[in-house]
Write a structure and sequence with these properties.
This protein is an alpha+beta fold and 168 residues long. The protein is 21% helix and 39% strand. It has five helices and ten strands; from the N terminus they run E-H-E-E-E-E-H-E-H-H-E-E-E-H-E. The protein has helices at residues 16-21, 63-70, 84-92, 100-104, 142-148; strands spanning 5-7, 25-30, 35-40, 44-48, 51-58, 73-78, 108-111, 114-117, 122-133, 156-167. A hairpin with a 2-residue loop joins strand 7 (108-111) and strand 8 (114-117). The radius of gyration is 16 Å and the shape is globular.
Length: 168
């Protein structure tokens, strides 16, 4: 944990389209007894309600969702490109079926009780503010519903305050 330092929001330099959409992130939640993580390539960073926030969507069948729902905080962990295969693994295997954190070789560390990964290069520690299920009747462009939700497994959208930015 001592490899990370807290930086100010004004010092965060990243392209969210590249970092989230192409390099991906791990949504990590739980406590010191049990935690889980999932790969996400959808999400956003911005300002809402006068707070620096992140928007992430989690489908109902994802095991990590149980950990996010149970805990008030979670982390978004970003890695350098050498970890892409590991992130692909986290996105294709369920923590219900195996201990994918142990299998991955990544090491969980904690920041004020919030799990994150020692190998990450950037971590956003987030506190949940708002949650709502995406609803089919709210799509202005109905082609998005048919394209992305053929199984009607609509994401829950979480808006969370970014409490800390940690970098190596």
């Amino acid at each position: 944990m001592d490899k990370f330092k807290i930086i100010d929001f004004k010092d965060l330099k990243l392209n969210p389209f590249e970092k989230i959409g192409n390099e991906w992130m791990l949504i990590t939640a739980g406590d010191e007894q049990k935690q889980n993580a999932m790969t996400a390539s959808w999400g956003a960073l911005g300002v809402m309600w006068g707070k620096n926030v992140t928007f992430v969507g989690i489908r109902p069948q994802r095991y990590t969702k149980e950990f996010v729902d149970k805990n008030n905080k979670f982390s978004l962990c970003f890695f350098d490109k050498s970890h892409k295969k590991t992130l692909s693994y986290f996105g294709s295997v369920s923590g219900r079926n195996e201990d994918k954190i142990k299998t991955s070789g990544l090491n969980v560390v904690f920041n004020d009780g919030v799990p994150m990964f020692e190998e990450a290069s950037l971590v956003l520690v987030c506190k949940k503010l708002y949650k709502q299920e995406i609803k089919p009747e709210c799509f202005i462009d109905p082609t998005l519903d048919s394209k992305w939700y053929a199984n009607h497994d609509y994401h829950d959208l979480y808006i969370s305050e970014i409490e800390k930015i940690l970098v190596k």
